[in-house]
Amino acid sequence: VMRYFDERCQGSRRLSERAKAVIPGGVQHNLAFNHPFPLAITQADGAHMTDVDGNRYIDFLQAGGPTLLGSNHPVVRQKVNEVLDSCGPVTGLLHEYEVKLAELVCQSMPGVDMVRLLGSGTEAVMGAVRLARAYTGKQRIIKVGGAYHGWSDQLVYGMRLPKTGRMEAVGIPRGATGNTQECNPNDLDALRSQLRWNRLRGGTAAVLLEPLGPESGTRPVHPDYNRQVRALCDEFGALLIFDEVVTGFRIGMGGAQAYFGVTPDLTVLGKCLTGGYPMAGAIGGRKDIMMMLVGGIGTTAKRAFVGGTLSANPLSCVAGYYALLEAQRTDAAGVAGRAGDRLRKGLEEIINRLGLPYVTYNMGSIVHLQTSGVLLLDTSSLWKLFKVKDEAKRRKHMMEEMGAAYTAHGLITLAGSRIYTSLADTDAVIDDALNRFEDV
Ligand code: PMP
Fold it and tell me: Which family would the database say this protein is a member of (predicted)?
C-alpha cells in the first residue's frame, strides 16, 4: 500500500507538503482520514475522480454526501453558468431561483411549510435550535447518541470521536453546553426519564436527532424509534427536530421523514440541498414556528434572528434547484439506493466467503462498512470501549490503514467506513468496485 503512495502519488505528496506550511494539518478536510497524505484532485465527474498524478478512482466519498447526482453534474453546471453570466454570484436581493428552490423543498418534505436558506448544516442546526427555544420558551435540548450536528459551541458537546476516544472539542466556554443533554439511541426509557426530569426544571425545547441514527446510521435506530420519539415529544411539549443534513433528498425527495412517515416540527437540511455547491444549509418547518424568524404571525413580537450575507445567493439557489429537479426527474435516490443495495450485497458475499469479521449494512445510498471491530449500537458502549487501553488508537490505526488500502486500490471512501453511492454508479461501476474491495 505504501509503495503505491511512494510511486504513484508524488504530485499529491508535493502539494500536501507545501500545504502544511499554510494550512493547519495540510488539508482543510479530514473527511477521508487522508492517510498517509491527502490526494490532490484535478478532475471529478460522475462516479470517478482523477488525482494530480493521473490516477483514477471510484468516488464513494461524494464529497461527504452532497453530490447525489455524481460529481460535477453537467445540467447543474450549465444552469449555474447561466446565472453567473446574468447576475454573478450574489446580489443581496430576491432571485427567482430562491423562490423556486424554496417551493421545491416545501413540496418535497412533509414537515416543511417554509424554508430559510443558510450557509451550512452547522448554521442551520444552530438556527433550528434557536427557533425551538424561541417558540417553546424553554431552554434544554436533548440530542441523541453522540451525533455530529456541526461544530457550534452548544452541540459539539460530548463529541468523543471514534478516532481517539478523547473529547476532541476544546475552546468551548464553560456554560455553553449547560442546556445540552444527550441520550442513547433506541433507549426510549432514558429519553422519557430525561424529559420528565426536565419538566420539573423548565422543560425541554427540542429533541434533536438524525432519523437513521447518530452519524447517519453508524449507530442505527430501530424502525419504530422515530415515531416513538415523536409521541414522547408531543407528550412533553418539546419540538422534534430532524437533522436531515445527510438523509435529506438522499433517502428520497421527502427525506427520512417521508420514508419513516414521521413528521418533525423542524427539519435541518444541507449537503444534497445544493448538489455540492456552496451554502448548503436550510431550516424548514411548520409555518407558525418558522414565522418567528420575522417576529411571529401578525405581531411585532419576538424575533429569532438568523442571518448571512451570502445566504440564498443566486448561484447556490440555481444549483440547488436544478440539482433537486434532476434528482426528482431521474429518481436519483432510487437509482443510487439500488447501487447501494448491490454494493452491500456484494460486500456481504465477499465478507462471508472470506470469513472476515466485518459488518456491512445500508440504507439506500448510505452504505456502512465496519472493519475495525464490533458494531456499536449505542453511545455508552462507544465510550466504554474507549476506556479499554489503546482501543481508540487501535481503531484509528485500523481505519487509517484500511482507508489507505482502499485508496491504493482505486477506491475513495469516507474514512474507510462509509460509502455514498450516487446516480452515476452503474452496475459496471459497482462490480468494478467489488473486485477492488475483494483485493483489499
Ligand atoms: N448535521 C449532520 C448530520 C452532518 O452530517 C453534518 C456534516 N457532516 C452537519 C450537521 C454539519 O453540516 P456542515 O458541514 O454543512 O456544517
Answer: Belongs to the class-III pyridoxal-phosphate-dependent aminotransferase family.
All CATH 3.90.1150.10 domain ranges of the chain, comma separated, are 2-60+331-439
Q: Is beta strand 418-420 parallel, antiparallel or unpaired with respect to 411-412?
A: unpaired
How far apart are the C-alpha atoms of 335 and 365, rounded to whole Å?
Answer: 8
CA atoms within 13 A on the CB side of 86: 12
Res. 34 pLDDT band, cuts 50 70 90:
confident
Average pLDDT over residues 73-101: 97
| Residue ranges, CATH 3.40.640.10, the chain | 74-330
Please choose from 67, 118, 215, 246 the residue to mutate so as to test ligand 1's pocket, defined by most ligand atoms within 8 A of CB.
246
Distance 404 CA to ligand 1 centre (A): 24
Return d(Cα 438, Cα 360) in angstroms, integer.
14
- Nearest residue (by CA) to ligand 1, atom 12, is 121
Average pLDDT over all residues of the chain: 92
pLDDT of 301: 66
Name the residue at shortest CA distance from atom 14 of ligand 1: 121
CA–CA gap between residue 58 and residue 30 (Å, rounded): 19
Q: Which CATH superfamily is domain 2-60+331-439 in?
A: Aspartate Aminotransferase, domain 1 (3.90.1150.10)
pLDDT for the residue 399? 82
* CA of 244, closest atom in ligand 1: 3
Q: Find all residues with CB under 8 Å of 188, minimum gap 6, and list them.
A: 225, 228, 229, 232
Q: What is the ipTM of this complex?
A: 0.99
Residues belonging to the active site: 148, 243, 271
Distance 149 CA to ligand 1 centre (A): 6
**Ligand 1 geometric centre to CA of 168 (Å):** 17
CATH no. of 74-330: 3.40.640.10
Q: What is the distance in A from the centroid of ligand 1 to the CA of 174?
A: 24
pLDDT mean over 173-197:
92
